[in-house]
Write a structure and sequence with these properties.
By secondary structure, this protein is α+β, with helices and mostly antiparallel strands. The protein has two domains: about 160 residues, no CATH class; about 325 residues, Orthogonal Bundle (Cytochrome p450), CATH 1.10.630. The chain is about 45% helix and about 10% strand. It is built from 15 helices and ten strands. Strand 9 and strand 10 form a beta hairpin. The radius of gyration is 23 Å and the shape is globular. This is Allene oxide synthase.
């Protein structure tokens, strides 16, 4: 059960990351956790089956009249020792999760549970380390350095990979009248990531032309299944809940696939692994971290984000398509090609990417544990979070804060144009603000700027070839299913 404080209780004022104004009342954090074991089970069933993810949060916001409240987060028993969290659902309180002086990020990447380190060669990879741990700075600094060295390969490498996607897209539309964008995007994304880090086509390795994404997908599923619902019509909810949300699926079932994936990186990424050894990182540890960065962070992010990008641009309609095509083609003509400088001049294209990251962030969850008593605020009140309490933020609601964004539930392509670009500081998707930069001292995604660049580049390459398009939208385990129904080539 919760252990709240009264708003009239005298408390020693702890430091506050977001400087709560003194005129805001100190409010007891509403909500609770129910009875041990049964409370978390009830919340888990509500979350996956009775209400669904978004309604789970919105119903409690309405019930408690607060964007800050207590609840249990899945998976709960028996995977999570302690599922109790303080939930943050507005743009103001959410920012406390980025303050690593007050929030510990050790082993919280996936939430209140952590997959076995067997999935990462027995190592806690950089994503599970808190910045206070010495190995975090070593590993993250190494990968930030490698990404900087590879900068010149981003645009030509992505253009090479995406050209194959467009060819396959047109062929499938011609043959079948429709094309599964997600499947083609997975192959393209893995191809780009593997070429980037290994300077080799994955088809030249034991992975083959399509084996890589399939192996990574299984590897991701076995780690993230406690956060998923299959939604299968003929599988009883209680049976699915028992299989997916109660126990960790054993690594042994995918051990051979991971070994092949790891070996392909180990044998192909020699120069990067050599550099790791020079600064004191063990070669196998560096490779397991590289597989995680390439597979979980980079490929996994592209797998979720690019279908979302295409979905929202499709639903924006032909007028936005015409405006994007006109801007992109004019700038490319003026600049004499596709370059970083050209991408920076495409204001509508940039705004569209920020808006997709706002309305459907590729990583919806953020977690952290309070290192000390913390006083936070939302728009209306102050709240006291006690040391060692787990804090959880659900980004798809926090980034739709109606007190920050007008018409927050709808996709607005030009939301961040001109003076309104200052609002990108409230776009949270990379474990930080869009205006922040990844460093060894924070937990922001090391590839944050690369993701933004590739998303813009996706739109640029698309609208250099096509005028407009239509899609059919569905739902996947994590993200959107996008099926192309038509394509109109550029006139």
């Amino acid at each position: 059960m919760s252990s709240p404080i009264s708003s009239s209780t005298a408390v020693k004022q702890p430091s506050s990351d977001n400087s709560p104004p003194s005129e805001l009342a100190l409010r007891e954090i509403p909500g609770g956790y129910g009875f041990p074991f049964f409370g978390p089970i009830k919340d888990r069933l509500d979350y996956y089956y009775s209400q669904g993810e978004v309604e789970f949060f919105r119903s409690r916001m309405k019930k408690f009249n607060s964007t800050v409240f207590r609840c249990n987060m899945p998976p709960g028993p028996f995977l999570a020792r302690n599922p109790q969290v303080i939930c943050l659902l507005d743009a103001i309180s959410f920012e406390i999760l980025f303050d690593n002086s007050k929030i510990e990020k050790k082993n919280v990447l996936d939430g209140t549970y952590m997959p076995s380190t067997a999935f990462t060669g027995g190592y806690r990879t950089c994503a599970y380390l808190d910045p206070s741990e010495p190995n975090h700075a070593v590993l993250k600094g190494f990968f930030l350095t490698q990404l900087a060295k590879l900068h010149s390969k981003f645009i030509p490498g992505f253009r090479q990979s995406i050209s194959g996607l467009f060819t396959s897209l047109e062929e499938e539309l011609s043959d079948k009248g429709k094309s599964n964008f997600n499947a083609l995007n997975d192959i393209m994304s893995f191809d780009f990531v593997f070429r980037l880090f290994c300077d080799k086509n994955p088809s030249e390795t034991p992975l083959g032309p399509t084996g890589g994404p399939k192996m990574v997908d299984k590897w991701l599923f076995f780690q993230l299944h406690p956060l998923m619902s299959l939604g299968l019509k003929y599988v009883p909810n209680l049976l699915e809940d028992l299989v997916l949300h109660t126990f960790q699926l054993p690594f042994g079932l995918i051990k051979s696939d991971y070994k092949k994936l790891y070996s392909s990186f180990f044998n192909s990424a020699g120069p990067i692994l050599d550099e790791a050894e020079k600064i004191g990182i063990k070669r196998d540890e560096a490779c397991h971290n590289l597989v995680f960065l390439a597979g979980f962070n980079a490929y996994g992010g592209m797998k979720a984000l690019f279908p979302a990008l295409i979905k929202w641009v499709a639903t924006a309609g032909e007028d936005i398509h015409r405006r994007l095509a006109a801007e992109i083609r004019a700038v490319v003509k003026e600049e004499g090609g596709v370059s970083t400088a050209a991408l920076e001049k495409m204001c509508l294209t940039k705004s569209v990417v920020y808006e997709v990251l706002r309305i459907e962030p590729p990583v919806p969850y953020q977690y952290g544990k309070a290192k000390q008593d913390i006083l936070i605020k939302n728009h209306d009140s102050n709240f006291l979070i006690k040391k060692d309490e787990m804090i959880f933020g659900y980004q798809p609601i926090a980034t739709k804060d109606s007190k920050v964004f007008e018409d927050p539930e709808n996709f607005v392509a030009d939301r961040f144009l001109s003076e309104r670009e200052k609002l990108i500081k409230y776009v949270y998707w990379s474990n930080g603000r869009e205006t922040d930069d990844p460093t060894v001292d924070n937990k922001q995604c090391p590839g944050k700027d690369l993701v933004v660049l590739l998303s813009r580049l996706m739109l640029v390459e698309f609208f250099l070839k096509y005028d407009t398009f239509s899609v059919e939208i569905g739902k996947l385990l994590l993200g959107s299913l996008v099926t192309f129904k038509s394509l109109t080539k550029a006139t």
